[in-house]
Amino acid sequence: MNEPSAQTVPLILASASRIRSQILGHAGVRHTCIASSVDEGTIKQRMKTEAEESVAGALAEAKAWDVAEKLVAGKQPGVLVIGADQILECDGQWFDKPPDRETAVETLRALRGRTHRLVSAVAVFRGEECVWRYQEAPSLVMRDFSDDFLERYMETSGPEILESVGAYRLEGSGAQLFSRIDGDYFTILGLPLLALLEFLRGADVLAG
Question: Which residue out of 85, 100, 147, 184 is catalytically annotated?
């Protein structure tokens, strides 16, 4: 088990994402997960003509604010709430997490042989104030794999690929889908960890 760093305030991850929690936990950052009740679809629809960076940032802040305002404020005034979101953009089209394996296949066929971006945003709230915002946008080139490979990939992939907006897990066999990746590994998984750790150290939340 990883040894956690000394922490001066409690941290809450405003997410039900298993992988984001694992990223923090494996880095030795103690935290509690509280899923937000934000309707992502409504926000995306309202901001459909805006840039992906603006939408991802708005979603991350909305999630952190939702938990900070409804569940934390007044009860734990010093707590920090972390919100994160990720938008997959390919040639102007946005992709959502596939609800089923059939949609996952459609997503992979649409991304095959093309370059897409994972616009990733994180926001940290203390009470009603957003004290930190950050964004990265890794670029990934999916190779032009065969239909036979896609069929084998789907047969051997577990249900966890439905937790990923691109229907792949880079930490698993999904790595075989790509010919090139430009960007931070943790950010691709769903959380810009290194930048977040730097903020937490600078805010004296984690020992330096």
Answer: 85
